[in-house]
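## retry 2 of 3
previous attempt timed out at serialization; input unchanged, resubmitting
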Amino acid sequence: MDWQKSEQHCAIKFCVKLGESATVTYGKFRRAYGEHSLSRAQVFRWHKSFLEGREQVEDKPRAGRPSTSKTDDNVERVRSLVRSDRRLTLRMISSELNLNRFTIHQILTQDLDMRKVCAKMVPKNLTTEQKANRRDMS
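## retry succeeded, writing output
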């Protein structure tokens, strides 16, 4: 969706360079992008910004706290902690690494591709060695 925004911002800039009004620009947007176009207020805001000399089509960074807890370093820390003891709970991992539980859950399920089975965090997919052990046992 971000590429669509940038594309539309470029189109607004182009219309400003052609000397078209914000109303005409918005009408063209509704025809070109339909329901996926920027809102009227956004088109007018960007139109005004480009009229005032803005050159960038990307959004400016917003204020607020950046999400820095889901880093490669933290993923590795969680991986090593879970490998050392698979019976750790999210709360235990959270207090050990000083990260919130939601971040720990995301790292385990999305980055490490694990799920909880009988109070253990295990990989969703078996390795070749695990598959061979399972075949030999049965």
